[in-house]
Amino acid sequence: REEAEEELRKLNLGRGKWALIGEAFTLTAAAELGDRSQLTTIALSAAQNPVAVCVGAILAHCIATGGAVLGGSFISKYLSEKVIGYIGGGLFIVFALTTFAGLAPQIIALL
């Protein structure tokens, strides 16, 4: 954590809380646009009460994001940002390989 804070000081990115809130909002909104959970929420709200779907989706997103924030805060005490990045990158490669392995038979059948 100290390493990340030092880098922010060097880059003069230690802006105020509102800038951090804006950045977190922008990154989260951009990441969520068009993903599977949003498409599922659209389909559910078309078939059910949109207000209830909205409340449920907001609560679920708050819990999921809260868990990510708490987990990241905890992990940053023990691992550097660089190591966390390597772990995340490795996990994405594993996810890609397992997805490909699951799709490979279907791709082969199309050929």
Question: What is the radius of gyration computed over CA atoms, rounded to a whole number of angstroms?
Answer: 19 Å
Mean pLDDT: 84
Percent strand equals under 5%
| Helix/sheet category | mainly alpha
The string of secondary-structure elements, in order, is HHHHH
Tally of strands: 0
Q: How is the main sheet built?
A: none
**What is the helix fraction of residues, given as a range?**
over 70%
Distance from first to last alpha carbon? 50 Å
**What is the number of helical segments per DSSP (H or I, 4+ residues)?**
5
Low-confidence stretches: none
Oligomer: single chain
Name the overall outline: flat
Could you characterize what this model shows?
This protein has 111 residues and is an all-alpha fold. The chain is 85% helix and 0% strand. It contains five helices and no strands. It has helices at residues 2-11, 17-32, 36-47, 50-75, 81-110. The protein is flat, with a radius of gyration of 19 Å. The N and C termini lie far apart (50 Å). The model has no long low-confidence stretch (mean pLDDT 84).
